Amino acid sequence: MLTGKQKSYLRGLANTRNALFQVGKDGLSYNLYKTIEDSLEAHELVKVSVLKTCTEDFKELAFDLAMNTHSEVVQTIGRTVVLYRKSKEQKIQLP
């Protein structure tokens, strides 16, 4: 579980990053979860953009992404979700 200070630090890091994934009209799928999990292991911090064509509720989608990728939602802003999961090599040093 991340503290407020850690989430604030991660939001600052995510600010300069581009979204690596987009969720569109097809919504969430097993392949998307797997790809995001692999990316979390490689980068620890991942941004996911949700397109307007996606019919799922945004808050539910963010929750489902976090649950199925075993990560935490750092931030939801606009239609973007920022996820964090510590990798085995711990690339980001949290305060």
From TrEMBL:
Entry's Gene Ontology molecular function annotations: RNA binding
UniProtKB keywords: RNA-binding
Domain of life: Bacteria
Domain CRM: 1-95
Keyword Zinc: no
Keyword field contains RNA-binding: yes
Entry-linked InterPro entries: RNA-binding_CRM, RNA-binding_domain, RNA-binding_YhbY, YhbY-like_sf
Protein name, per record: RNA-binding protein
Source species: Anaerorhabdus furcosa
